[in-house]
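Below is how a single chain appears once it has passed through the pipeline. First comes the sequence as given, then the structure the pipeline wrote out for it. We keep one example in the README because the format questions we get most often are answered faster by looking than by reading.
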Amino acid sequence: MPTPPTLARRFKLSSPMRWLLPVILLLLFLSILFWLPWQARQMESNERQEQLIADTLWVEQTIRFQLARNEESLFNLGVDIASASLGAEKVHERLQQMLRNGRELQRVLWLDTSGKVLASSDSNLPHALAFSPASLTAADNARRLHRGQYAQPSQQTGFPDTPPGAMLMDYHQPLFDGQRYVGSLVATYQISSLLDEMVPWWFAQDNQISLIDRDDKVLARRAAAGPGHGVYTHKRALDVPGATIILFTDSVKSQPKLLPNLLVGSVIALSLGLLWSLLALWRHISRRLVAEGALRQQMLFRTAMENSLVTGMRARDLEGRVTYVNPAFCQIVGFPAEEILGRLPPMPYWVPEALEEYQQRFVKALAGNPTPQFETYFQRPDGTRVAVLIFEAPLVDKNGKQTGWMGSVLDISDRKRVEELNRQQQEKLQTSSRLATMGELASMLAHELNQPLAAISSYTTGALNLIRRAIEHDAPIDPNTLRPALEQAGAQAQRAGQIIRSVHDFVRKSEPQRQDSAIRTLIDGIRALIDLQARKYYVTIQEELPPDLPLLRADPVMIEQVLLNLTRNAIEAMQDAAPGRRIMRLRASHDAQQGMVTVDVIDHGHGIAQDVAERLFSPFFSTKSEGMGMGLNICRTAIEFHGGALTFGANPAGGTIFTFSVPAAPRTQHQALTDNQ
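Resulting structure:
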């Protein structure tokens, strides 16, 4: 009887598999042993490079901050000098104080308009100055641009304390009294002192720091621990106006080396892994605390700057979601940042009547074609509307990739209010002028007619007395006695008529000439004024103008004034209507039998009450607090002057329809043949 197979025999592997599995495991183990040190080496290299970049940025900001402080000190000193509040001795003391506070400075000079030294930080005034060509160019640019300019670093003479071949850089601060150039302040920096005084020792121990120009020429170098190895490097440009200076750092550290014995290294790494982890964690925490402190300082500075702005800032991503708003923007719209951030359109501060307009601009922005500058209105929670001017610009990241849109919002309510007041004042002045002219004409007419009318009254009274006495005495009436009085009365009546005709001729002299004009041309002439009023109240304008409409035989200016008055009244009548009903229609038609062109101005406003309708065309009657009541009266007079009529009626859909007719121009023979064809 055969023995049953054992468990080992049952799971016995074939000969190839017995050899393949250990080999695979060994290769995997060796691969891990080789991969771990290499990976550690790569991570260390990346960490060193990132640390170098961060430290370089910190050094660059430190240098630029000190330069900015000196620029501000020179600017303030220049303001005091320009205002003539400081003498040469006081200026000398302040220049010496600047030199003591900024050890990177070599000398500070006060020059007049001809380049003569008025004061210097040195004890003795230099007798002769020799500026480099780059410094002279920077001085000219500073005077032209009205702001400080740096000169490209170069070698200069006249500085006995500087080592031979040292690179110097001049900063020119022009001085102006109003627009008059009164001199300049010149501060001279030694480039090597910028590194010696502003680069901390711990950074210089690990890196070779150099300042180079645009051609990679070394201006100054500091290498406390020897030259760099060229493995970890970083360049950072100093943002100084007028000069190109680049901060170049080269670490003295070389590439991390692989352990010569990978197996021993792995064992040591496993043994010391915990300790290394603790040390790495402690170092990471220390660096993080330092970075957080610097970041906190930068955030405080940024917050203070944002809070001081009066311009609203709004950032949106590519989907239109609001990602950032500053306090000025929240103050303009009246909503806190918590209610705005993270929201997609429609926004709570959009005006309900302008939702379609906002949506169209939003779609254009998402398509990559935003409106760079436009005016609109925002609505606060209490219903107050704020006129704003918006500037849109692409928002890009450090890689140059667009991540959204940045908008600047300006509150222009005060400007709009001033413009409206100016317009109203101009209208009032024009109305007052017209009324004054009317009063003068009436006064002149009354004065000139007074004498002939009085004479007529006297002569007719005398004639009546003669007739009455003749009747009372039953005596015949002598025609020869009455003839002189009647002749004189007739002469005075002719004189009065001549006066009236003279005034009428004077008025007719100012009447414009009639021309053949198209109604489309007249509307286009005032289109800008109509659109401005319509945008203010979010009114949509619809036109119904047949293409075969004949020309008008009328004065263009008078018809444009009628159209402007009627459309303005229609728009203002719909300011309290629902957004969907704010539609004004301009409709024109031709009555061939009457030879008239009829124009309708249709609104959907509040309509006209019965008591108002009875006095609508009366002079000096107005439903507006600021109106003079002459607009519709003048419109009716202008239309009747052309032989037409101005009427009004109720709109069946709500509102009012104003209609006026103007004679059509006679068609030419060519037009008649064309119409028949």
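The longest helix spans residues 15-82.

See the next section for the split statistics.
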